[in-house]
Amino acid sequence: MQERIKIIDDYNQLLFEIYQQENLLALSDNHYSYKDIPVLAISNPAVVLSVKTGLHDYLNEVLHQLNIPNSDKNFSYSESELCTITADIKYRIGTLYIYHPYIVKLAESYGFHKGKKHFFYEQTLADARFNREIPVVFESIYKFWQRISDYLSCFFPEVILKVKGRTFFHHPFEHIGSKYPQLLPSEHLQWLLQFSTEEYPVFNKRRSFFVHSRGYDNEFFGKFLDRARDEEHSMLAMDKERDDLLDFLKHQLLNCLEGYAHLMRFLNEMDIQKIGEGGFSYKLFQQQKNVSPI
C-alpha cells in the first residue's frame, strides 16, 4: 500500500512541475481566482438581477414544463461544474506532457532493405497512452463549451424552450444575434461570438471525427500505413502533427479560461427588466432602448 502511495505522490509531483513549466491553469487555481477575478462570485450581480426580475422563476417554469431537473440548468451548479472541467482539462493535458517525451518518433524509426531506408511504427506503451488520451482532452473541452451554453441559456429561457432543453454551444449565440442586436456592442459578447464562429468550429470538427469516425490512435496508425513509408518528409509531418497537438490543446484551455471571464462580464453588462407575464427586456446598461418580450 505504501509503495502505491509513493507512486501516486511521485506522479502528482511530476504533474505539478509540468503545470508550472507549461503554465497550465484551471479556474479553480489561485483560490478560484483568474486574472484577479473571483471566479465563483463574478456573476453574482447578474444572478441577483435575474432573481429580482423574476427571470429565475421563469427559468424554473420552463424547466418544469420540459421536465428537466433544475440541477441541469442551475447557476451555482454550472459555475462549479465549469471550474471542475477546466481542472480536468489541465490534468489531461499535463498527462500528455508526461508521455510526450517517450512517444515514437517515426522519422527516427527506420531500417534498411536493399540499401533503401524504410520507416516502421513499433508502438510503445507510452505512445499508446499518449494517443488514447488525446480524444479524452477534446471531449473535456467540448463539455466545457456545452456547459457555457447551458449557463448562458439560463438567462435566455426561450432558447431552452425552443430547443426542448437540448442546448448546444451555438444556440444562445444565434438567439442573441438575431433577437437582441442591442447586446452586440458588448466587447465580451463579441469575443464569444468570434470564438463561436471562427475557432470553435475548427476545434469541434477535429473532436467530432474522434467521436463519429475513429479514435486518434487508430487514425494515426492508419495514416502511417497510408503514407509512403520510405519518404522521410511524410514521417516528419506525422511527428510534427503530434507535437503541435500540445500547443493546440494548451491554447484551447486558455480559450476556456478567457471564455468564462468574458461570459461573466457580459452577463453583468445586461440590464434585464420584466415587462409582462413571462416577458423580459434585455439591453446593455449604457443603452436606453428596450426590446420585444420573450
Description of the structure:
The chain has one domain. Helices cover 65% and strands 9% of the residues. The chain is built from eleven helices and six strands. It has helices spanning 2-22, 29-32, 44-53, 55-65, 75-99, 125-153, 157-162, 171-179, 187-212, 216-226, 232-269, and strands at 33-34, 37-38, 110-113, 116-119, 270-276, 279-284. The strands form three sheets. Strands 1-2 form a two-stranded antiparallel ribbon. A two-stranded antiparallel sheet has the order 3-4. A two-stranded antiparallel ribbon has the order 5-6. Helix 5 (75-99) runs antiparallel to helix 6 (125-153). The longest helix is centred in the C-terminal third of the chain and has 38 residues, at 232-269. The radius of gyration is 23 Å and the shape is elongated. The protein starts with a helix and ends in a 10-residue tail after the last strand.
**Which spans of ≥5 residues are poorly predicted at pLDDT below 50?**
288-294
Count of DSSP E strands?
6
Alpha-beta content class? mainly alpha
Kindly state the mean pLDDT as a whole number?
90
How many helix segments?
11
Q: Structurally, how many domains make up the residues?
A: 1
Give the amount of beta strand, in percent: 5-15%
The strand line-up of the biggest sheet is 1-2
Helix content: 55-70%
What does the largest sheet look like? 2 strands, antiparallel
Shape from CA axes? elongated
Please give the radius of gyration in angstroms: 23 Å
The SSE order reads HHEEHHHEEHHHHHHEE
- The N- to C-terminal Cα distance equals 60 Å
